[in-house]
Amino acid sequence: EQAREYQLARTSVPGRWTIGTEKRYAPTRALQLELGITNTSDTFGPGTTSAFISQIGQITSTTGAQRPNVVGILQAVLWCKGYWGGTEFGVWDSDTASAIMEVKADLNLPMTATVPVKLMKTLMTMDAYILVGGGSSKVREVQRYLNGSYWQRLDFGLVPCDGIYCQWPFRTARRRPAELPAGGHGNCPLMA
What's residue 169's pLDDT? Predict the structure, then answer.
């Protein structure tokens, strides 16, 4: 039954042998199927988030034994982003753990070999976590600061760390936590 659902998810993505934006939603749909969501969508929205939290909590080394397909989906998105996700699909190994640590270092998140829902959600996007051509190292420093400072806030989604300026994460940061003075941005070296 599960193989049929994966076949359905794979063939519902147009252009099976071409690379394009249609393919980027396949991992999200595969994860939704693993979570028992039969009416899949292209977004990692509230339903996917809730199912992930209630069924998995966070992906760890023990998840592989219980949910190898979820680990396999994680590895696939790591590979797509240029991180070495492991040597065997669905098996959490030291390469998988190292890739998670590398992603977290690039995003400026706490260094644990676990994948909470926010990290899984951002891994499903086209966002880059390293400086890209045309990006600014100063903008990237701010992006990393925002992730490191606000990642635990419910109203803050992780932002890319590619050095490309975009207004939405900075507007989000301006909705300051109560502990910051009006107009202040904590100790951010570029936003103070």
Answer: 53
